[in-house]
Amino acid sequence: MNARHSRRGLLTAALAVPLLVACGGPVTAPAPSDGSSPPDAPSPSTKEPDPMTNAALLTAARDGDLSAVTAAIADGAELETRDSHERTPLLLAATQDHVDVATALVAAGADVDALDDRHDTPWLVTGVTGSVRMMRALLPAEPDMTIRNRFGGIALIPACERGHVGYVREVLTTGIKVDHVNDLGWTGLLEAIVYGDGGKPYQEIVELLIDAGADVNLADSNGVTPLAHARERGQDTIAALLRQAGGR
């Protein structure tokens, strides 16, 4: 329980924003919410960047102001400029789920793997927010799916913990490692059971992980298997799924 509370506290401090989940539909390039065509990539300026212009880009990205983002880039703002927590404009946009802004920044060449001072990246943040639209917006930048967050986890693991069914379904199609083990000794399957309530979303996630080839007998650092955890928590439906998949 201590590890869980520590994990929850850190995630809350890092992402004190509304978490928006969007899912469903084929994987296609995201369209702006107003139904218009996706924005063209803003053309970087040859001007020397200055602190005020960089600050304007950070603010605009955080606030989801696409026109201001485009203008700041045209005025010479640095795509990888950082705020006081080493967050880039793209990371701020991803955290706030400003998909149109993220799409424009990716098109302009923003780094989808840029780490902040808490070891989050734009890509890693999508596993916490569960935003399928943001995940789709970042995929063209070919994110490094092996980069670990401060808990040693990849994007799949927090999505399993938080019950983001749509996100888990789609991220499993990217080739992300289904049996990655974080520094706490948990896989996505274990986190769906240990941190979940056994309800329908977590049942669906367990099914998705099993179908993706998850090792149902990969135990935690104390040697406790997913099936043992499910039984201990009275998660009868999940326990049945694990037994059907060969869980012991």
Automatic annotation (TrEMBL):
InterPro entries listed in its UniProt record: Ankyrin_rpt, Ankyrin_rpt-contain_sf, TAT_signal
UniProt-listed Pfam families: Ank_2
Keyword Repeat: yes
Region feature Disordered, mapped onto this chain: 28-52
Chain positions of ANK repeats: 85-117, 184-221
Signal peptide: 1-29
Record keywords, A-Z: ANK repeat, Repeat, Signal
PROSITE patterns referenced in this protein's UniProt entry, alphabetically: ANK_REP_REGION, ANK_REPEAT, PROKAR_LIPOPROTEIN, TAT
PANTHER family for this protein: ANKYRIN REPEAT CONTAINING (PTHR24173), ANKYRIN REPEAT DOMAIN-CONTAINING PROTEIN 16 (PTHR24173:SF74)
The protein's name: Ankyrin repeat domain-containing protein
Organism of this sequence: Phytomonospora endophytica
